[in-house]
Specification:
Helix content is 25%, strand content 30%. The protein contains five helices and eleven strands. Strands 2-1-6-5-3-4 form a six-stranded antiparallel sheet.
Length: 202
């Protein structure tokens, strides 16, 4: 499982990475993340993902010390260093380590890390045969447009679906499909393509 990861300005082996037990991401889920698909060694829709990362950071008052071009360089170096041809790049930013208090000051240094993971995104039976799904109540918080690292509702929904023999949970609220447990949902109705609201829909 050892691979090259990024941690606060350094690229190093994952076996040597250390994160404080007092990090607010661990204690409160006080952080954001993004996942970018990689196919053929190339990042897919990177600009859209990084724009959302910046929007999420702004919405929770979390400063980002890395510019968008630097984020791209970080992603590309992780892909290259790990020889990734198909899979994902995961990046996460937390508010950093501090004493356990719900409120936060401005002196905490954010924690930034990223890693790659091999996944079969374009191969396998799922693309040809589809998957089974299980309908599950959407119990997530209202700000679903923020890519919060607090994913307990999704974890429980997908676990419930798995125990029912389904590959994915279809989340619904008031009779409306909102998203998959870890996927986007699109529906085609004649000449229209429908999806969940892409921004804050409160």
């Amino acid at each position: 499982m050892n691979r090259t990861i990024y941690l606060n300005g350094e690229f190093l082996g994952s076996d040597f990475a250390k994160v404080s037990l007092f990090d607010r991401g661990l204690l409160f889920g006080d952080g954001i993340y993004e996942v970018t698909a990689v196919v053929g060694g190339r990042l897919l829709d990177f600009a859209l993902h990084i724009d959302r990362l910046f929007r999420s950071a702004d919405d929770i008052g979390l400063p980002l010390s890395i510019s968008k071009p630097e984020w791209r360089e970080l992603h590309e170096r992780l892909v290259c260093s790990n020889g990734l041809t198909e899979g994902i790049v995961y990046v996460q930013v937390t508010r950093g380590a501090a004493e356990r208090e719900f409120t936060f000051g401005q002196s905490v240094t954010p924690l930034i890390f990223g890693f790659t993971q091999e996944k079969h995104l374009c191969t396998g039976d799922r693309l040809q045969k589809g998957i089974s799904t299980e309908l599950v109540d959407d119990l997530r918080w209202k700000r679903r447009d923020i890519k919060s690292t607090s994913l307990l509702a999704q974890v429980l929904a997908k676990q419930h679906a798995s125990l029912k023999g389904a590959a994915e949970a279809l989340l619904h609220e008031n009779g409306i499909i909102t998203e998959g447990g870890s996927t986007s949902v699109f529906a085609v109705d004649r000449d229209s393509v429908m999806c969940a609201c892409l921004v804050n829909c409160r």
